[in-house]
């Protein structure tokens, strides 16, 4: 078994959730470099500048190559780890971008037919997105409580709240 971490959540006395992803990955790379057990490995990634057409194309090519070899997909994240919108609300920290074959397993062998794609486009994803953002906010709260050294039961309050949200009915294929 090998692990490919992509973020360091906290250190003694400090939540690291707001540290930019490029810095997080640099820390993880250093951990991998100094891992005597070889348990850790680097997380494959590619930085894409969305304002540069060739960079975007390189990202598309990277994703196609990875999913073409059977990879499940990737998670697209902003460099800034903790982002708020103009009204101060948390922004979704990442978006899963699945490959065609993985989606075929989830949605069925004929999901790429035009009528199936149209049906999939009509789904209401607001509930799923809202649920994910609430879980994310509670996770951040748990990290802050842990970093402040609050009693474990206070950390667990936020963790159990995440688990309670996960019991809400939602289409698992979204």
UniProtKB/TrEMBL annotation:
Domain of life of the native organism: Bacteria
Organism the protein comes from: Streptomyces candidus
Domain Polynucleotide kinase-phosphatase ligase: 1-169
Record Gene3D superfamilies: DNA ligase/mRNA capping enzyme
This protein's name: Polynucleotide kinase-phosphatase ligase domain-containing protein
SUPFAM superfamilies (UniProt xref): DNA ligase/mRNA capping enzyme, catalytic domain
Pfam family, one: PNKP_ligase
């Amino acid at each position: 078994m090998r692990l490919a971490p992509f973020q360091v959540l906290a250190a003694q006395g400090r939540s690291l959730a707001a540290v930019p992803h490029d810095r997080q990955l640099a820390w993880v790379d250093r951990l991998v470099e100094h891992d005597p057990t070889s348990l850790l490995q680097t997380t494959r990634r590619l930085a894409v500048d969305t304002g540069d057409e060739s960079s975007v194309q390189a990202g598309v090519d990277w994703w196609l190559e990875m999913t073409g070899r059977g990879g499940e997909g990737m998670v697209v994240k902003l460099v800034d780890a903790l982002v708020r919108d103009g009204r101060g609300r948390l922004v979704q920290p990442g978006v899963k971008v699945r490959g065609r074959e993985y989606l075929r397993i989830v949605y069925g062998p004929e999901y790429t037919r035009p009528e199936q794609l149209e049906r999939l486009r009509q789904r209401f994803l607001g509930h799923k997105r809202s649920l994910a953002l609430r879980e994310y906010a509670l996770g951040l709260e748990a990290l802050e409580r842990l970093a402040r050294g609050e009693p474990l039961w206070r950390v667990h309050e936020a963790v159990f709240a995440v688990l309670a949200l996960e019991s809400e009915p939602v289409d698992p294929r979204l």
